[in-house]
Amino acid sequence: MNMGGLHLLFLSRNFLQIEQEPKSTTQGQPPAYWPATGELHVKNLCASYSPDGPEILHDLSFYIKSGERIGVVGRTGSGKSSLAFSLLRCIYTTGEVTYGGIPISSLKLESLRSNITIIPQVPELISGTLRQNLDPFEEADDLILNDALRAAGLDSLQEDMAVDKDKLVLDTVVFSNGSNLSVGQRQMVALVRALVRRNYKTDNIIQRSLHQELKDDVTLITIAHRLHTIMDYDKIMVLDAGNMVEFGAPSELLIQNDGVFRAMVNESDDKEALYALTRDGV
């Protein structure tokens, strides 16, 4: 028992000594109209998880037009999650990132992060009602929440459920981490949270909702774990060991004989279906 107590005390001291993010200030407040567009400029972006740690992203430079849909792919350890962390300023970076015409380094963190919505593959859910998970700060009324549920494909996800008590409604009790919900239902909750913020059963439902609900001024960057979700996107970014090795339209990447993206598609069991999903049907 004593060893357990000492162990906990040791952990507590370490957590107290970790570096803290900057406190909120009045500095770095963007104009009220920002972001007017979803335009993203990235120049010479490098990143690491500590000031003296190894570099995990190497000199990334790219431009994304407002309203474009970008798929980010790469094998495990390629830097996909690190790129997302960099755009949210969760890790140490150098280089320039300009979002909506303003360098993100000049913005206070809450302003930046409140204007970037993340839809995780396995979202974190709290113990409470579905309503509390969708709108934890009670900013939306039931009409908005129910409309967002329908837009996210709730009806399609629940159409095969024979028992009404198993269907999701705003008063449905959600266990910690959503343990009483299916994976598809948990993903839908994450999507609805994004729709409710106006930042606009399966991956197919989520992708269809994203196509229909997000407008031309919203830029969508999807870190893809399944290639079929991004084959009809405007561009694909391929990362490898922290480097951007390819960036272009899917149809362009698929005709590169030695291309990394082409190799990933050709290795898939759904190769023919993936080629058919591209806009040009390569």
TrEMBL record:
SUPFAM superfamilies: P-loop containing nucleoside triphosphate hydrolases (SSF52540)
Pfam families found in the cross-reference section: ABC_tran
PROSITE patterns, alphabetized: ABC_TRANSPORTER_1, ABC_TRANSPORTER_2
Highest taxon of source: Eukaryota
CDD domains (UniProt xref): ABCC_MRP_domain2
Keywords, in A-Z order: ATP-binding, Hydrolase, Nucleotide-binding
ABC transporter domain boundaries: 40-266
GO molecular function, one term: hydrolase activity
Name the record gives this protein: P-loop containing nucleoside triphosphate hydrolase protein
Organism name: Lentinula boryana
